[in-house]
């Protein structure tokens, strides 16, 4: 995988069994994400957007295919290895903030860093810096119950960045917010990703969020459309198209020959 590519997904398939029915959620998805890129994935509810994000983040497993992150294949990792991968490589932001109610904003942000071995002093300093980026300098000692919905989500954004992850995965990060707070959270999320040089993949129904991304794609019927291919994925797609065109030409020639052979 090229050093410029942070995520490479190849032939990703995910099915769910519902009674006697097999639901095809992801059907042979291929794409690459370059370092520092911002990608928005849109699509109807139930189209598999969150499933795709969860597989990249090591929260779910695919049925077949491969996912490489920073040059490491993750689909074959054990649960313990996946836990370490999530801690060090991925920053998660969900629709709900999932803050610990008995801890302050500062403590909620510093805990992931402290738990991975960073010194308490350093983790607190990093948390303060990130909360300042989120315009929450005067709210660091407040508990979640003392914060507004938008403020809680901004704390969640800061927490996602505290371990210096390679990628930030945001699943409907503004889904529970009013338009004003949604815009503020989106502004700070995108600005934070740019400032810290993070790759960002956002799943969203919000058009105002999706339009900010450099790359936009849509997941529909298990197929990811609109994603520019690169590297091996582009080559695979090119080969597939070449084979399809060759087959079409062969069929066309066969149809042309058929009347002549009948006359003979």
Describe this protein's structure:
The chain has 264 residues and is of the alpha/beta class. It has one domain: Rossmann fold (3-Layer(aba) Sandwich), CATH 3.40.50. The protein is built from eight helices and ten strands. Helix 3 packs parallel to helix 5. The N and C termini lie far apart (55 Å).
Shape by Cα distribution = globular
Arithmetic mean pLDDT: 86
**Going across the major beta sheet, what is the strand order?**
6-7-8-3-9-10
The largest β sheet comes out as: 6 strands, mixed
Specify the structural class: alpha/beta
**CATH superfamily grouping:** P-loop containing nucleotide triphosphate hydrolases
The fraction of residues in strands falls at 15-25%
Number of domains: 1
Report how far the terminal alpha carbons are from each other: 55 Å
The assembly state of the depicted protein chains is single chain
Q: What count of helical segments does DSSP give?
A: 8
Helix-strand sequence: EEEHEEHEHHHEHEHEEH
Weakly predicted, low-confidence segments: 231-241
> What would you report as the Rg, rounded to the nearest angstrom?
22 Å
The CATH topology turns out to be Rossmann fold
Determine the fraction of residues in helical runs and give it as a percent range: 40-55%
CATH architecture: 3-Layer(aba) Sandwich
Q: Output the CATH class name.
A: Alpha Beta
Q: Total number of β-strand segments?
A: 10
